[in-house]
């Protein structure tokens, strides 16, 4: 099966798919597009004009990062979901929950001023508090890597960068969330899912946006 991932280098949703592909040892090609100047062929295959899109055998198209991860999990060896049906459903629900946190985090990074940044951080904090209670540790389900880990790694990686740049003092209130990132960061799939100079690229991207966060990058 030929897999081609349509990507943008700094997109956390694309990163979810790459982590899953790497963890499953699936061969894939990457095609980058410019989100500021989307090509017509991309708009024709992506219903929302969003990345990631997975093209299968040059014909079928799968969109939505969580669905792409489920698909990759199904067509490759092994299963990155827990066996128990309730726990599987639970994991899927937390994957869906993570999407809003990714949006909260992006809104923090593009907020124009300190107040906008704080407001979004408080929203993210409420969600992080709920997430904290759901983590078994060190990874979401314990020792074994799951799709839910792939879904959250991009978010956690960006929080680790954010707290080096801006004051996120209350992030210390989430020890299991932080320990989760420590455990994830050791896996080769995580650095493998981003450009080598990821942090520099991320800083440059937001510096250009001249947001409150960007001004400190
Ligand atoms: N729910 C989608 C969200 C994907 C998404 O929002 N991707 C962003 C980039 S990170 C995008 O393509 N945005 C389109 C745009 O910027 O116009 C998923 O999980 O795949």
**Helical residues, percent:** 55-70%
CATH architecture of the largest domain: Up-down Bundle
Tell me, what's the shape?
globular
Secondary-structure element sequence? Answer: EHEHEEHHHHHHH
In round numbers, the mean pLDDT is: 97
Largest sheet: 4 strands, mixed
Keywords:
217 residues, globular, GST_Omega/HSP26, transferase activity, 2 domains, binds glutathione, four-stranded mixed β-sheet, Glutathione S-transferase Yfyf (Class Pi), Chain A, domain 2, Glutathione-S-Trfase_C_sf
Structure explained in plain terms:
The structure is a single chain. With 217 residues, the chain is of the alpha+beta class. It has 2 domains: 73 residues, Glutaredoxin, CATH 3.40.30; 131 residues, Glutathione S-transferase Yfyf (Class Pi), Chain A, domain 2. It contains 9 helices and 4 strands, in the order E-H-E-H-E-E-H-H-H-H-H-H-H. A 4-stranded mixed β-sheet has the order 2-1-3-4, covered by helices on one side. Strand 1, helix 1 and strand 2 form a beta-alpha-beta unit. The longest helix has 26 residues. It is globular and about 45 Å long. The relative contact order is 0.14. The protein binds glutathione. Glutathione binds next to helix 1 and helix 3. InterPro entries: Glutathione-S-Trfase_C-like, Glutathione-S-Trfase_C_sf, Glutathione_S-Trfase, Glutathione_S-Trfase_N, GST_Omega/HSP26, Thioredoxin-like_sf.
Question: What is the gist of this entry?
Answer:
Keywords: Transferase. GO terms for molecular function: transferase activity. With 217 residues, the protein is α+β, with helices and mostly antiparallel strands.
């Amino acid at each position: 099966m030929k897999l081609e991932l349509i990507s943008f280098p700094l997109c956390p949703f694309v990163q979810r798919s790459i982590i899953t592909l790497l963890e499953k040892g699936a061969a894939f090609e990457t095609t980058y597009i410019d989100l500021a100047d989307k090509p017509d062929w991309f708009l024709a295959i992506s219903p929302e004009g969003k990345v990631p899109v997975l093209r299968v055998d040059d014909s079928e198209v799968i969109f939505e990062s969580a669905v792409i991860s489920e698909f990759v999990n199904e067509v490759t060896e092994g299963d990155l979901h827990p066996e128990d049906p309730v726990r599987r459903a639970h994991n899927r629900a937390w994957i869906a929950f993570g999407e809003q946190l990714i949006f909260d985090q992006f809104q923090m990074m593009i907020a124009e001023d300190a107040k906008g940044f704080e407001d979004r951080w408080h929203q993210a904090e409420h969600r992080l508090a709920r997430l904290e209670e759901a983590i078994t540790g060190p990874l979401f389900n314990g020792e074994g890597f799951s799709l839910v880990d792939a879904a959250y790694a991009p978010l956690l990686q960006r929080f680790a960068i954010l707290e080096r740049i801006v004051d996120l003092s209350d992030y210390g209130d989430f020890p299991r969330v932080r320990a989760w990132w420590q455990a994830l960061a050791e896996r080769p799939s995580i650095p493998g899912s981003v450009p080598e100079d990821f942090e520099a690229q991320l800083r440059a991207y937001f510096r250009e946006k001249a947001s409150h966060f960007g001004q400190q990058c």
